[in-house]
Amino acid sequence: MTHKTYGISPAKIGNQDGFRFPRAFSRDYPHLVNASGEVEVLDEKTLLVRLDPAPTAADEDASLMMGLFLEFLMHQVVEQPETLVPYTEEMSQELDALLAGVTVEA
């Protein structure tokens, strides 16, 4: 991955001090425009900035779908508890055998 460097300038925002990023940063990384995060001071001239991007519509849709799915499962458990099957050590070993050697890219 090629690393780009962006110049920043000081900015007074209300009664807070901050930094202004150039427009190129917003164009190159639009998902970080409304991100929150934290700054770690490494030394007098070096800061490490960690940003947590704002959730996207796709993230919210996935969260909604997961919530609906879990709600459905809970309804099934309450209505039909006899259908529950305990997760056994044998099931775990079978799953481990199926996944042996499988690599997942981050």
Description:
38% of the residues lie in helices and 24% in strands. With 106 residues, the protein is an alpha+beta fold. Strands 1-2 form a two-stranded antiparallel ribbon. It has a two-stranded antiparallel ribbon with strand order 3-4. A hairpin with a 2-residue loop joins β3 and β4 (46-52). The longest helix has 23 residues, at 57-79. The two termini are 15 Å apart. The mean pLDDT is 89.
- How far is the first residue's CA from the last residue's CA? 15 Å
Largest sheet descriptor: 2 strands, antiparallel
What value does the average pLDDT take? 89
Give the overall silhouette: elongated
Give the helix tally. 3
Q: Short description, anyone?
A:
The chain is built from three helices and four strands; from the N terminus they run ββαββαα. The chain is an alpha+beta fold and 106 residues long.
Map the helices and strands:
Layout: E1 9-13, E2 16-20, H1 23-28, E3 36-43, E4 46-52, H2 57-79, H3 89-99
Antiparallel strand pairs: 1-2, 3-4
Keywords:
3 helices, about 110 residues, single chain, 4 strands, two-stranded antiparallel ribbon, alpha+beta
